[in-house]
Specification:
mainly beta, 42% strand
Length: 365
């Protein structure tokens, strides 16, 4: 298994900016649900979702975020959809930067803020931590680029000008580990989003231990470290969403690569009383019924792709052997913790030099 660093959200979408900073194309109702698709390194396309169907990735409005003067045009733009309906675009370079887009009264996406981004930090999750109607950003950072490393997090708070305050203190969650993943969600049912995390402490098989710090409702988290769930095998990322429509968050676990049944995901459904019950869920690679050592990594998000009111799983597989061959599949949810068969959204790019299509979704929280 390799050390891996990844953002919790995949990249988003929209049309070319006009000279006044507004995005051209067909006006879009800001209340219409959308996803983001990155067809090339510089573009985010705002793709409308469709009732009963998968999205048509050729449709929508294309944005070309500026993200400041120090970004590298060869680095792909990464997009995040915020719960208030805005779009955050990030890009690396000699001076990493961001752009924020909002939908204006004229029916256009407008770039309302551009600023510097703290180097090495990625967006692990977003949530309105202080209930002011705007998302805070949970930023995470792997301190060392390779091998064992400390992992740290901090919260970036929105400012009135559309930018962010990145000066909040850092918290070291793990002093030395192989890989770690972070998300936000109310797992103790007190109405406040909590900081939820899991580590893979070393290469090879390792157990699952999902822990959390309770949210205080003001953008900070309690010091006490609490156990949410443990199991014999690790997961690659944590997906908190209400898959059985009972009003409480469930936990979907895409598998790590060092597991007995390659591709077997698990789901911990909430119960009326007592702890969540972990059970096998989707088999993301049904032909791989054996150990999956170093075959690749799975990543998933939860969202209502087809607007039927049920949360779906969108899963990505990255093959170590084929480098940049990303593939995306949709598993439509039935609102009872079960899902339909895999439907291919896009194959990705087998050529390591090609642009990798990536996506951004409204999270299913």
């Amino acid at each position: 298994m390799r050390a891996r660093i990844g953002a919790a959200f995949l990249a988003l979408a929209a049309t070319a900016l006009g000279g006044d900073g507004a995005a051209g194309g067909v006006p879009q109702n800001p209340l219409d649900p959308f996803m983001l698709y990155s067809p090339n390194a510089s573009t985010l396309r705002v793709v409308p979702l469709r009732h009963g169907q998968l999205p048509d990735l050729e449709q929508g409005t294309a944005l070309q975020p500026s993200c400041g003067k120090g970004v590298d045009p060869k680095q792909p733009v990464v997009g995040v959809i915020l719960h208030e309906g805005a779009i955050l675009a990030l890009r690396d370079g000699s001076e990493p930067g961001f752009s924020r887009f909002e939908f204006d009264a004229l029916g256009q996406w407008r770039e309302v803020a551009v600023g510097a981004w703290p180097r090495g930090w990625y967006v692990a999750a977003t949530a309105d931590l202080d209930r002011d109607g705007r998302d805070e950003l949970l930023l995470a950072r792997r301190v060392q680029p390779q091998g064992y490393s400390a992992y740290r997090v901090k919260v970036a708070t929105p400012s009135q000008d559309g930018g962010y305050d990145f000066t909040q203190p850092e918290r070291e969650v793990y002093a030395s580990t192989w890989f770690a993943t972070f998300t936000l969600g109310d797992v103790d049912d007190d109405g406040q989003a909590d900081l939820v995390f899991h580590q893979i402490p070393h290469g090879g098989p390792s157990p699952l231990r999902v822990e959390f710090h309770s949210g205080r409702g003001d953008g900070t988290f309690a010091e006490e470290r609490r156990l949410l769930l443990s199991a014999p095998e690790a997961a690659h990322n944590l997906v908190l969403a209400d898959f059985n429509a009972d009003g409480t968050l469930d936990l979907f676990l895409p598998p790590d690569d060092d597991v007995r049944d390659f591709g077997q995901a698990h789901l911990a459904l909430s119960q009326p009383k007592g702890p969540r019950v972990l059970a096998p869920s989707l088999d993301l690679r049904p032909a791989g019924e054996s150990w999956g050592t170093d075959n690749g990594a799975f990543f998933a998000v939860a969202t209502d792709v087809d607007l039927d009111g049920h949360l779906d799983v969108v899963a990505r597989f990255t093959s170590w052997g084929r480098g940049h061959d990303y593939s995306y599949e949709v598993f439509r949810g039935h609102a009872d913790g079960s899902f339909g068969p895999a439907e291919r959204l896009t194959q990705g790019a087998p050529d390591p030099g090609a642009h990798l299509p990536t996506f951004g979704w409204i999270p299913g929280l």
